[in-house]
Amino acid sequence: MKKAKIVEVAPRDGLQNLQAFVPTDQKIALIKKLAGTGAQEIQIGSFVSPQAIAQFRDMEEVAQAVRRLKGFVPSALVPNGRGADKALACGIARLIFFFSVSSKHNYANVQQSPLDSLKELQHICRSHLSNPSMTLRVDLATAFGCPFSGNVTTAAVLRTVEKVAALGVREITLCDTVGFGHPKDVEEKFLACFRRFPEIRFGAHFHNTRGLAQANALRAYDIGVRSFDSSAGGLGGCPYAPGSSGNVATEDLVFMFESMGIKTGMDLKKLLNVCAWLQKILPQAKLSGSLFQAGLPHKHKLFC
Amino acid sequence: MKKAKIVEVAPRDGLQNLQAFVPTDQKIALIKKLAGTGAQEIQIGSFVSPQAIAQFRDMEEVAQAVRRLKGFVPSALVPNGRGADKALACGIARLIFFFSVSSKHNYANVQQSPLDSLKELQHICRSHLSNPSMTLRVDLATAFGCPFSGNVTTAAVLRTVEKVAALGVREITLCDTVGFGHPKDVEEKFLACFRRFPEIRFGAHFHNTRGLAQANALRAYDIGVRSFDSSAGGLGGCPYAPGSSGNVATEDLVFMFESMGIKTGMDLKKLLNVCAWLQKILPQAKLSGSLFQAGLPHKHKLFC
Asked: How close B185 gets to chain A, by Cα (Å)?
């Protein structure tokens, strides 16, 4: 059976750029509603300093509320060892460490060089990787291009993957943080990674900023990628391109996969209900998903 | 060299659903500006009854003004023999006849059965197909689904193609009129057409209503389709899905192809300038293109 895993990132990537604080109970409600759509994994937020992202100042409370919910794996982003310790202390056992392939973007994002981020990662790996109940995924931001330095080569991605792999990490996601990627680049970079690092599971994180997220996901699936991040409603947006869309919308991605007979385990109608609820509680947020605007096709058969 | 032909449809598909009449000089200016972007073919409008689409009541004037412009082929839609005669009398020698695979959509669109549309097509073929200076393309609407009857099977598409081919037509475009198509359906239908009708050149016309136009175009290119309709700015929208996007945006499609090293002969910066101009003269129209909102990537290299 053809399958793809969807990692729902709305509570994290979707909320992190919102100016207005989303009340804790609404964050928890969002995660519960997303769990009801069949999402296998939900990124519940980031364990970052409240000075960096005030939106996540209630992470511990959110984590405590959702950690024991059934049916999905809660995961959280951590930029450093302190964040990892906090997440684990709150019972979140799936951590996502992130840094950028591009030096300029890493400075802009976490105020340090990629090498210093790697040292943080090394610290996390040494402290926690032997813990059998904990899993770690590493996200490589700007793997398909950087808003400051432009093109990011396959060689640069491979060099970064190599350093991460050397620390014992076995799950890496290539992220098109600002929507520069295109299907040929996706094919080239993932195939190069598959060939060179067969021991590592690679996932994809695409943004639809320039309209190519679905084509990129299609190509990634074609060549063997089976884990895809997406955000309900396409919630979230790149601060570098005001008005443009951000993460690919979960319902759009699920619509493509399920239409093609690729099972995601997610319920499209429930997802569209979550979008409608999101639009109600966040009227100022732009939901960029296409399916939410257009609706399901008339008499649509989901599985061909 | 990898190549794709883009057929620019903004003056036709883009304008046809606008309530407000676009002045004739602005229509002519749009066509001239689009010609400047490198479009090989531009659909300048439809030779339909002004009672059906008032927007095109000035078609003869528009045709007279652009017929002798250099650098592109002007084409026009014709729903019947009368329209074909008018177009040819105005010096437009590339005609596009259209009808729907789905009976219900054809009734809604041109108030007759597909069989009656085929009779009109037969009339056009008998009168004009022997004219060496005239070319004819036939568009099959709702080839990937109908807003009234839902699913449209590959068998139904093949049956319709067969009837059109029997009249001597050698160019057929499969149209996803309302954005129901997905990459697997695209692959199945085009491959079936290629196998069964090797003598016919098939083109694709995708709408982005449910966010899949680019993925569909990618898959169509993968399997050998080389002609793609698109509309500058994504101008146009389906009246059945208010607020949703319509035709795939030319600049988004060109961005995908050119990024992948597939030459379209079009100039992205000039296309984005046309979008900005369109937004100025049509402030009420929704330009749904992603690239126009987000801009070109920083230090973007068009050709890999």
From this structure: 8
What pTM value is reported for the model?
Answer: 0.96
Residues of B annotated catalytic, as ranges: 238
The yes-or-no answer on residue A90 being catalytic is: no
Burial A169-191 (b: 16+ CB within 10 A, else e): bebbbbbbbbbbbbbbbbbebbe
| DSSP assignment letter at A12 | I
B244-264: pLDDT as tens digits: 678 999 999 999 999 999 999
Cβ separation of A151 and B241 shorter than 8 Å? no
Determine if residue A45 is left, alpha or beta; phi over 0 gives left, psi from -120 to 50 gives alpha, anything else beta: left
Q: For residue A211, what is the nearest residue in chain B, using CA coordinates?
A: B290
* Per-residue model confidence as pLDDT tens for chain A (304 residues): 999 999 999 999 999 988 899 999 999 999 999 999 999 999 999 999 999 899 999 999 999 999 989 999 999 999 999 999 999 999 999 999 999 999 999 998 889 999 999 999 999 999 998 999 999 999 999 999 998 999 999 999 999 999 999 999 999 999 999 899 999 999 999 999 999 999 999 999 999 999 999 999 999 999 999 999 999 999 986 655 556 678 999 999 999 999 999 999 999 999 999 999 999 999 988 788 999 998 888 766 554 3
Give the integer Cα–Cα distance in Å for A146 and B275: 25
Give the separation between CA A178 and CA A193, rounded to whole angstroms: 21
- Read off the pLDDT of residues A263-302 as tens digits, 9 standing for 90 and up: 999 999 999 999 999 999 999 887 889 999 988 887 665 5
* Angle, CA of B24, B110 and B229, to the nearest 5°: 60
Asked if A64 contacts A45 with a C-beta cutoff of 8 angstroms, the reply is: no
Name the minimum distance, in Å, from the CA of A69 to any CA of chain B: 32
ipTM: 0.95
What's the rounded Cα separation, in Å, for the pair B138 and B78? 10
Q: Which of A241, A244, A290 sits opposite B210 (nearest CB)?
A: A290
- Residue A96: which of A70, A61, A134 has the closest Cα? A134
Interchain proximity B211–A295, CB inside 8 Å: no
Spatial CB neighbours of B203, under 8 Å, sequence gap ≥ 6: B5, B7, B137, B171, B172, B173, B174, B225, B226, B227, B228, B229
What does the alpha-carbon distance between residue A40 and residue A267 come to, in Å, rounded to a whole number?
A: 12
Per-residue confidence (pLDDT) for residue B238, from 0 to 100: 61
DSSP-based three-state secondary structure for B260: coil
- Could you tell me whether strands B94-100 and B171-176 are parallel, antiparallel, or unpaired per DSSP bridges? unpaired
Domains of chain B listed by start with CATH number: 5-294 (3.20.20.70)
Which among B133, B293, B35, B194 is positioned nearest to A207, based on CA atoms? B293
pLDDT digits (tens, 9 = 90+) for A114-154: 999 999 999 999 999 899 999 999 999 999 999 899 999 99
Instruction: Decide if B245 and A211 are in contact by the 8 Å CB cutoff.
Output: no
Contact between A53 and A45 (Cβ < 8 Å): no
B2: left (phi > 0), else alpha (psi -120 to 50), else beta? beta
Which residues, 6 or more positions from A139, have their beta carbon under 8 angstroms from its beta carbon? A77, A96, A97, A98, A99, A172, A173, A175, A205
Q: Are B31 and B44 in contact (CB under 8 A)?
A: yes
